[in-house]
Amino acid sequence: MSAPDVDTTRGFLGRTRDIFARMGRHDLWLSFRSKPVVIVAAIVAGVLILSALAAPLIAPHDPYDMASVSLLYAELPPAWVDGGDPAFPLGTDLQGRDMLSTILYGSRTSILVGAAAVALSLVLGVAAGLVAGYGGGVVDSVLMRIADIQLTFPAILIALLFDGVVSAIFSHGSSDQYALLVIILAIGVSNWVLFARVVRSSTLVEKGKDYVKAARVTGVSSLAILLKHILPNTLGPVLVIATINLALAILGEATLSFLGVGLPPTQPSLGTLIRIGNEYLFSGAWWMTIFPGVTLILLVLSVNLLGDWLRDALNPKLR
Amino acid sequence: MLYFIIQRMLQSVLVMLVVAAISFALFSYVGDPIEAMTGEDDPIELKQQLRASLGLDQPIPIQFARFVGNAVQGDFGVSYRARQPVMQLIAERFPATMELVFVASLIALFVGIPAGIYTALRRDSPVSYALQTGSLIGISMPTFLTGILLILVFSVWLKVLPSFGRGETVDIGWWSTGFLTVSGLKSLILPSITLGLFSTTLIMRLVRTEMLEVMRTDYIKFARARGLRDRSINFRHAFKNTLVPVVTITGMQVGSLIAFAIITETVFQWPGLGLLFIQAVGNVDIPVMAAYLVLTALMFVVINLAVDILYFFIDPRLRADRAVASGATT
Amino acid sequence: MQRDQQPRSDAAAPPILEVRNLVVAFHGLAGTLRALDDVSFSIAPGEILGVVGESGAGKSLTGAAVIGLLERPGRIDGGEILLAGRRIDNLPHAQMRKVRGREIGAIFQDPLTSLNPLLTVGEQLTETIATHLALSAKAARARAVELLAEVGIPAPANRIDDYPHHFSGGMRQRVVIALALCANPKLVIADEPTTALDVSVQAQILELIRRLGREHGTAVMLITHDMGVIAETADRVAVMYAGRVAEIGPTREIIETPHHPYTVGLMGSVPVIGEDAEDLVQIDGSMPRLNAIPPGCAFNPRCGEVMGRCLSQRPGLMPAGRSQAACWLMDTVTGDAA
Question: Is-contact A289 A75, C-beta < 8 A?
């Protein structure tokens, strides 16, 4: 009906900028400012993520430096409890490592694994969604059937199974060195479906629009249409799902590590720390479990809150 | 309606076949079952004999058919680790998990649904705010951490509830139940709360959102405009209309309770299927893993089918037979 | 097409509904918005008052205020609503509930969404009847069948146990009307009752509404943006603009000799049933948003005959022929009239 309303000469970045400009017009900033809970969540998430990433710079001790760790300081309670040592504000673990430092390093591992797993889910899911939505036909049915079947099972079970199988294959070698990779793969693979579904449905919508038809008629290649026109239009929902999935991925990693099939004690994540602490719960050394636990809850809660808010602000229909 | 159910059943069979294929692939290609079952020093002849007796020298499709045939009869082979028939191990563990999941589901439904309705109807009451905040924390709380915190408070500090095991159980036929002894019931409290908490908060939040959505519909406004009683509007008209999504999610939640039982059972050393599975993953005990997979898949498929059939009782629009018969007349 | 324009009611009878200086405002974070400002009108027994205006003019809001179903953050900030002489705008929730359905019936726009999909029409009818009338279950069901017959559902005894999705749109709107009439209310508020229907069905539904007024003496407040519907059905018309009544008077007078410049624009072409009033508006510009209503007369930015005082002083309703119009052009008292 109308002429293509989009300048096809602008690249992906130009279109992406449009999307964010549109978000701006949706009063994203205004809605952010008017919600104190969201502001607090953003600050908490920001502080946790930044301090975790900067762990090597700001941690008071290096828990991996065996020279600085001494059994003399093992099992010290937090500094404010009787018997605490101000040098170890949150106490120490069984090997005398500073809890604050191990938590900082542990969060770093948790966040990096979570982010990498989400990136993997995102790439898998967006690719599957674009192909299914744009290609249609058999490819679409097969991909969506796989998605349906996978959705029948909780993600954690899929990740656990994936992890089990891969460790079984590598059972002869030392699986520790692959542990990081395996867990990212396991969590990434178990969470692609939501991305695929959302991208597929937006692709179907965009596909029917005049500007895409026009681009097709003028002989623009399918890949170019997908990347330049369709992909940018899916960014809003994808961003929302990615945020919510980050919380899920961090939880998933913690759970797997807690179950002992995730990261080994040599590369402790928050889940590993909680697992180790849990074994000494009855000895009264509560701080070994509680502090990593609280950090994990704060991290997941704040990311969840941000995700909820983004979803409501960008697209109230996406639920 | 019949057509729909048959279609769903076929789909379920397809899912089961896919799962069986994955289990079979695990069984055949991950590690060598012969190596797992025999010692390093056993003679080659013995291994070959075993291979032949297990049918592992046959073509793949025949092996798969045999695997499915055996699985249908409940034969998943012998555990590499325990050297016992897998089905026997599972039968021993099954009641523990089922009782845990059952109590957790009851908690999720009987706390989650009323709390969801309450927070939707009394949006501004302090109780609603408290429940909403609590549910946010509940939804961000990993299951294992819930369990650890409960153990810390009730077992370590207050010393009022046990932190591991099922307590005393009573055998009724092959089913061992913890419902009939005091220690069995006390042992159930912390694990079932741990397992049920996430689902409770999820169901509560879902019921709340759906109720708020339905409250905005024209037919609720019209019901108000007809002066119907609040009670009838809230329950007969509004809540009933939230049931389709609520039943869907509840069904999915019961399924995930079975999966999350793995975590709860690990925290509380609960002698159920989940603990068996996680130990099997640790020991690369493939027959147990395969059997667990097929069994949980079967439970999920049955739950999903049950949910699909429930829809027909809830929503008359799905009972499409009459609409065709009476037609659309103006 | 043309009907006798003689009002059916006798002028001396006290009005069924009287709205006096009604003010409805939305209280939000950004401040207070007046959505209805000093709205007054009345409806006599058996009379059909058409309320017409563009979307956002406050028509539906007026209906919601009368029936006591304003949604938060909207609330009545001033004025009175009287039903048969009794004040109802300040009734407590429980008493107002008894007025709704019993004394005031409502018909909504979209018959496809007005009925609860999970209950049969019989269940919805008998529940409404039993809520307001002291009837046994059997008697309530009998009345439900009667009502369905009255609104023109063929074979009502067979259809009563059907679910809403078994009915077509037009039939569903008849069911909605039956639901509004369950307790024989004195007043029915019909909010765009035909907008969602096919043109051929619209006329049938309008005829049904007209017949009800005639046979039961039920007063009807007919809210619509469609001048064709008004011309076909209403005895009197209130034209609303930006939350205010611009002009009110007998239907024929409003159509043939409109007085307010906005009504004049609205009547710019001969209305035909089924045509959208929006298409008929031949006035430049658009209705101001609630947060940007100019001082003085709300219509002043678009008015071709704007005068100095229109920019600062707000006109009240003034006699204009057989109608009343809120326009300084009608002001004969101070002698400024054109």
Answer: no
Query: Which residues pair with residue C105 across a beta bridge?
Result: C188
| Dist CA B115 CA B207 (whole Å) | 8
- B-chain CB neighbours of C182 within 8 Å are 226
Whole-number Å distance between alpha carbons of A290 and A281: 10
List CB contacts (< 8 A) between B136 and chain A: 301, 304-305
How far A16 CA sits from the closest chain B CA (Å)?
31
Tens of pLDDT, residue by residue over C17-68, are: 999 999 999 887 667 888 899 999 999 998 999 999 888 888 889 999 999 9
CB A298 within 8 A of CB A231: no
**Residue A116 vs residues A90, A121, A167, C39: alpha-carbon distances, Å:** 29, 9, 20, 62
- Region C193-214 average pLDDT: 85
Q: From the centroid of its chain, how far is CA C122?
A: 27
Nearest to C36 by CA among C67, C72, C79, C83: C79
Domain ranges of chain B: 2-72, 86-329
Superfamily in which the B86-329 domain is placed by CATH: MetI-like (1.10.3720.10)
Full DSSP string of C141-166: HHHHHHHHHHTT-SSHHHHTTS-GGG
CB pairs under 8 A between B and C: 92
Q: What is the DSSP string of B34-57?
A: HHHHS-TTS-HHHHHHHHHHTTTT
Torsion region of C184: left, alpha or beta (phi above 0 gives left; psi -120 to 50 gives alpha): left
Would you say the ipTM is above 0.85? no
For residue C202, give the H/E element and its range: helix C199-216
B263 vs A259: CB contact, 8 Å cut-off? yes
Cα-based distances in Å from C250 to C15, C211, C237, C256? 16, 19, 6, 10
**With 0-12 CB in 10 A as exposed, 13-18 as middle and 19+ as buried, what is B92?**
middle
- Using CB atoms, which chains have 3+ pairs under 8 A with B? A, C
**Whether the Cβ atoms of residue B118 and residue B108 lie closer than 8 Å to each other:** no
- C78-C84-C85-C91 Cα dihedral, nearest 10 degrees: -50
Q: Give all domains of chain C, ordered by start, each with its CATH number.
A: 17-52+70-234 (3.40.50.300), 250-330 (no CATH)
**pLDDT means per 10 residues in chain A (319 residues)?**
39 50 57 78 90 81 68 70 71 76 88 93 93 86 84 80 73 63 87 89 82 79 81 82 90 87 78 84 79 91 87 59
State the residue for tokens 């009459």.
B322
- C285 DSSP assignment: S
Question: Which 8-state DSSP code applies to residue A98?
Answer: B
CB contact under 8 A, B230 and C99: no
Q: Are strands C219-224 and C48-52 parallel, antiparallel or unpaired?
A: parallel
pLDDT tens string B30-41: 666 666 666 667
